[in-house]
Amino acid sequence: MELRRREFIINKSENSPNECKDCYAIAPDKSRIAVSDGAAQSIFTGEWAEILTFGFVESSPGIKFIKPGDKVVRDQAVKEWLFEQWLPALQAKWRERVAGIPVPYFAEERFRRGAYATFLGLEFKETRSGRFLRWQATAVGDSMLFIVRKDVLSLWFPFQLKDTGDFPRHPALLCSRILGNDHIKNGEGLNGVLIAGGKCSPGDVFILGTDALAKWFLTRNKAGDRPWEKLCAITSQEEFAKFVEERRAEDQIEDDDTTLVIVDVTQNSPILPGATGAGHGD
Amino acid sequence: MAEKQGKKYTRKFNRNSPGCILVLIDQSGSMSEPIAGKQGKTKADAVADAVNGILNVAITQSSEGVMVKDRVYMGVIGYGTDTDGVDYARPAFSDPNLSGRNLIPISEIENNKLGHHEMLQTEQSDDTGKPEEKTSQVPYWFEPMAYGKTPMCQAFRLAYDILREWVDDPKHKKCFPPIVINITDGIQTDGTSDDVIVAAKNITELGTSDGNALVYNCHTTRNEKVEAEQFPADVDFKKLSDEANSDEDKEEAIYKAALFESSSIIPDTLRSTLESRLGSPLLPNARGFVYNASINEMILMVEWGGTEPIPTTIIDK
Question: Residue A106 and residue B313: Cβ atoms within 8 Å?
Fold first, then answer.
């Protein structure tokens, strides 16, 4: 099986593209993809979203794949790895990156609390035989994964998010400060780390989106539309921008930074090397 | 979202559809009286603290990273009596770049502070959790001021004129409607209680496609017996009168009731934000009225450009 991907990003209308707090990163072989939505009201958030996504695709995350059929695990080892190893290294990167940047008085408190961002990481891995491809997703917050199989929405993740698109006002977020993550580490369900996984089939479409797009997707799906058709028809950044702007004007998509990554699983040879993809709003 | 169409008070404050907040501050002589529960503080001190506090909250909410964005236009109208005995209601900023102006983009307000107060704070360190002492700079624009009478009706009428111009501007047609926050000890001298109520109600007739203007009142008092109160759904006028020790206290009870009456009912779409900030549910028909209490919630209940990412439980860590 081969993976093909397309990715688009657009900033909220009050900002310029370089102020976008969404970020995605894709490993050269497409085996790891991450999306993150930085909370606008924390500081150095775009930097944090970038560090999180690149951190996921650049270093092998080593999250043990869950058994096929298991929809979710609350694996202590996963949490330990995430919070004891993976995250502290990225937090150190963030500190290094922002060190020495002057912080005005009105942002001091936010700087002390650190940057906050959602996280959605998707991994693909071949089975030992090399005949099958498995997927596993790790999520904190309300960035979402949709899997379309045989033209039917077969799964959305985190599946605790309501199909009405009515998301929690305060999504779970990963913090760039060590102390800011205790509640996520100990949190359950949408307040913690969620993991899901399964087997890929040729023809599967994986759609990753940040909350504005995810809410639109869920509400349109609930209304009986097939929102993936519209997304899969998008072939360029210009088309994506037009698609989002039109829906913003109709109050169908919230005016927020918006990211879309689509991965198609095709009936071909196993994962092939491809170009590195990454985006940060420009 | 499609189902949100028709709902009011849903627009976020952002650069494309900025909010508008007009603060009215009572600068009358009675404001030099001590305030209940705060030793050594006068009502005028409390007003200066309140308006500086609102401006600081607006700056923080309008900032993204290290920049302040013009998500809100703000004005401050002072009302009182000049030394020659003439009542006034007029723009109150004293900085030369801000004085005489009705509504000012928040970034300009941030750029033109009168000064900073230094505050020593003990904070938990970023990553280790150890307490550290740190001096914070807290800017201010207003210093306490108190002289003369309380021409509150005049202030509400001026607010009406300023806000009518704002809502008539086609650029603001779809914006969140204007918010008026009146900070006073409540005893107007230029009309009856009914005149105050009418002047405030007239403002709430103005509006945008997102709803009618909101009038919130913050009442400061020197009455020690009266407990601080936020967002009541009714004012028990009889109880207040019965508990009043003097004619003056009785009079204050009347004005409290009038200010309550002239305060807008908190719109449903803002309730949940306010409830989560307060950590307790509001009564049905709770109004934008506080009595000797913090008024920052009045602007924090609005959705600003980026939603606050951090739940209170974590802020308090």
Answer: no
From the CA of A39, how many Å to the nearest CA of chain B?
6
Domain count across chain B: 1
Name the nearest CA neighbour of A71 among A166, A145, A168. A145
Residue B216 covered by a domain:
yes
Q: For position B173, which CATH number holds?
A: 3.40.50.410
CATH of the domain at A58: 3.60.40.10
Does the CB of B99 have a partner CB in chain A at under 8 Å?
A: no
ipTM of the shown complex: 0.77
**Residue B119 belongs to a domain:** no
Tell me which amino acid residue B35 is. I
B66 vs A116: CB contact, 8 Å cut-off?
no
Query: How many whole angstroms separate alpha carbon A73 and alpha carbon A197?
Result: 9
Over its C-alpha atoms, chain B yields an Rg (Å, rounded) of 19
What's the CA gap between B41 and B292, in Å, rounded? 12
For residue B53, the enclosing domain spans 20-114+140-315
Longest pairwise C-alpha distance within chain B = 59
CB contacts of A170 in chain B (<8 Å) are 307-311
User: Rounded to two decimals, what is the model's pTM?
Assistant: 0.81
| Rounded Cα gap, residues B212 and B36, in angstroms | 33
Asked, for residue B6, whether it belongs to a domain, the answer is no
Q: Considering CB atoms only, which of A19, A95, A106 is closest to B59?
A: A106
Residue B310, chain A, CB below 8 Å: the answer is: yes
Domain count of chain A?
A: 1
Residue of B nearest to A212 (CA): B1
Residue B274 lies in a domain: yes
Per residue of chain A (282 residues), give pLDDT as tens.
678 889 999 999 989 999 999 999 999 888 999 999 999 878 999 999 999 999 999 876 566 666 554 444 456 667 777 888 889 999 999 999 999 999 999 998 889 889 999 999 999 988 878 778 899 999 999 999 999 999 999 999 998 888 888 898 789 999 999 888 988 888 888 888 888 888 898 999 999 999 999 999 999 999 999 999 999 999 999 999 999 999 999 989 999 999 999 999 987 644 433 333 445 533
d(CA B160, CA B215): 11
Q: Which residue of chain B has the CA closest to A118?
A: B309
Q: Which range of residues forms the domain containing residue A264? A: 2-279
